[in-house]
Amino acid sequence: MAKIKHNNFIDSVDEVFSGAKKEGVMHLYAEDEYLNGRTITIKGKKMFHFGTTGYLGLEQDSRLKVAAINAIKKFGTQFPLSKSYISNPLYAELEAKMEVMYGIPTIIAKNSTLGHMSVIPTVVRDEDGVILDHQVHWSVQSACQLLKLRGIPVEMIKHSNMDLLEHKIKQLASKCTKIWYMADGVYSMFGDYAPILALITLSKKYPQLHLYFDDVHGMSWKGKNGTGYVLSVLKHIPANVMIMGTLSKTFGASGAVLICPDAKLREKIKVFGGPLTFSAQLEPASVAAAIASAAIHLSPEIDVLQAELAEKIAYFNELLSKTSLPIIVQNDSPVFFLGTAMPISTYKLVQNLFQEGFFVNPAIYPAVPALNTGIRITLSRHNQKEEIKALVDALVKHLPIVLEETGNSLIKIQNAFGMKDTQITTDKTVNISSLHLEYETAITKIHKPTWNKLLGKQSTFDWEGMRFLETAFAHSDEPENKWDFHYYIIKDKTGIPIIATFFTYGIWKDDMMASESISIRLEEERIKKPFYLTSKVLGMGSLFTEGNHCYVNKAHPLIEEAILMLLQQLEILYNHLNADMLVLRDFEEDEQLNRIFHNQGYVKVNMPDSCIVKNLQWDSQKAFANTLSARSKRHFIEEVIPFENIFHILIKKKLTRREIDKSYELYKNVKNNNLAFNTFTYPPHLFTAMVADPNWEFIMLYLKSKENKQHLKQLVGILFCYKNSNYTYSPSLIGMDYKYVREFQIYRQLLYQGIKRARELNFKKVDFGFSATFEKRKLGATIVPKVAYIQARDNFSMELMGMLQNETLR
What we know:
Layout: H1 9-22, E1 39-42, E2 45-49, H2 62-75, H3 91-102, E3 106-109, H4 112-123, E4 129-133, H5 138-148, E5 154-157, H6 162-173, E6 179-184, H7 196-205, E7 209-214, H8 229-234, E8 241-246, E9 256-259, H9 263-271, H10 275-278, H11 284-297, H12 301-321, E10 335-341, H13 343-356, E11 358-359, E12 361-363, E13 373-378, H14 385-405, H15 410-417, E14 435-440, H16 448-455, H17 463-473, E15 484-492, E16 497-509, H18 516-526, E17 534-540, E18 550-552, H19 559-577, E19 581-587, H20 591-599, E20 603-613, H21 621-626, H22 630-639, H23 641-644, E21 647-652, H24 657-673, H25 684-692, E22 696-703, E23 714-724, E24 728-736, H26 741-744, H27 746-760, E25 765-770, H28 773-778, E26 782-792, H29 796-808
Parallel strand pairs: 2-11, 4-5, 4-6, 6-7, 7-8, 17-19, 24-25
Antiparallel strand pairs: 1-2, 3-9, 8-9, 10-13, 12-13, 14-15, 15-16, 16-17, 16-18, 19-26, 20-25, 20-26, 21-22, 22-23, 23-24
Helix pairs in contact: 2-11, 3-11, 4-5, 12-14, 13-14, 17-25
């Protein structure tokens, strides 16, 4: 079968960033003629700057500026030569000062990203393994992709989870000489710290464990001589620890610095460390500025600067403690994260703060999960207490206003970030803006004509189809095939429906729409751990159904209010179930829905295209062929028609026990051979339920051959077809014997027989669902692009599968 179209991470990120750009909170330009670090001008508005990563304000220090200017005058704007040949005249002095700062020689890199690319592939040997914290900086993760080309195992654990780390160490211990755990010293979004002492304790228990820290956000403002947060905890660098610091950000200059206690390894990195060898070296101005900054770091002045910043951090914390502002992590780092959960709340709060004269950074997907959106506030020595106080006052003033305007609340934020026990609403019917909600957990409690009018005539989820699904899945003994059902109908006060939909709650494989190569690897893991990398999902529709699962009355004046009401109810249920993911699926592209869902914290991803045959107005095989394009007609005449007489074709409404067993075997053949859409295998009782339901029938292909008796009446293909309201014919599942698929074109024949049967029964369309779009298009199917909108409690699975995807490309 043809592969399905998979989600495109870049498209999803572009969608989010484009939304933020339209809201005027990202991709901005400073307009100042001169920068002072305290204020910044955007679109003519001067604001206090609470978005810098220059925490000590050294980028504006006159000594660094003078040093840089003099270096340009003496040595030019750059020294265009690799350091492998010769370094510019200032490098030796900088390296000497850095050695004094850290007590051992260091390695200077162009920046931390190139530093990681130089160091990681050099220090991690072929017999080693790597474990990444899933929030470690992108530059570390990117450098580790190079390791996979050499077959080095690279694993990932959830953020700062020591139990998972120890489990991964045990897994790798027997096959790896060294096991490297890579993390940030200070994480750039929430400002939280790596559990350094716990890691050192773990490394004593497992001597194979080595630690690699990106400490660029911990540099200068912490530690003796400003050597960073990690060393402020460790005091000295152990033999099994490496640290990448920065000469940018708080250091005030440019470049990065590697601290490696192993002299032999350090020399190896310096002699041949990828970009260290082949990339340009730091410009003279940058080296001179770094020398001037290093001189400050080596003087008692660094203690004064650190104390000044610490005082302002303490003051900010004191002010915050007197408020109910949802600061996610409170510690003594200069990075603070105020959670808003919903992107629209973030955008409006940033806009309001801009108007009040405060520049802050919106933190959005993929830097944080979509529903963990918020504002990153950073402090520097430039910030004065009066503007710090004014910022807190502005946050206290505007956050409640924004939350009310956007239908948000502190409780929602607390739920999104797991800050308090989940709050649950038990109201079954809620009236908002003249709307009425009907919520049920069984289709039998829904008015049958109403449901069929709104959501009938497609796929297998008319009223009767939903009753069948509940029978098959609501009470299953298998956790992976046990679903809860939730029905929503929203009407206006006059009873006119605006929205109707249903959701199921169950276990999904996280790689369901990932590439087949990822699923193959994960299925190997699932032999021992069946629920490895799976999630509890509250999803629109079900894994069995395809099509438009949500009726939306776009013409109704209260449509946006109705959508927001639905999302509000889903959030309550999502938190009540403690689900891992919330999925709204199978929508066609719609600008209004894109805007609403994005603003409410959903990330849009591409779904596989849907395939529908609409033209059933023909009365012969020749007439059907004439409905196809010239190329498809030739395909039909050459690859479908000649094989029809090879089969004895039966259409049955009832199957014997033996036929059910054989059909199930053929279904599993297809399921196990097609991981492009990877779900759990349906249980045998589903197929027994199909036989008992009058709306199902089965198109069965038996080989007939007088020359070869063993083929006679051998079942080699089956379509499991649902008849929806005498309107839509839905071949929902397929089974095939792969020994004969190519020789007798079984798949194509089954598709054609499904279309032919729908025409015989006078159905209006055939809903072929998704996958194998190329084959279905050749038989006249219309291809309909579909998208889904997703919320997840964290990005771990997405990042892990992204890592696995890159590994499979080697």
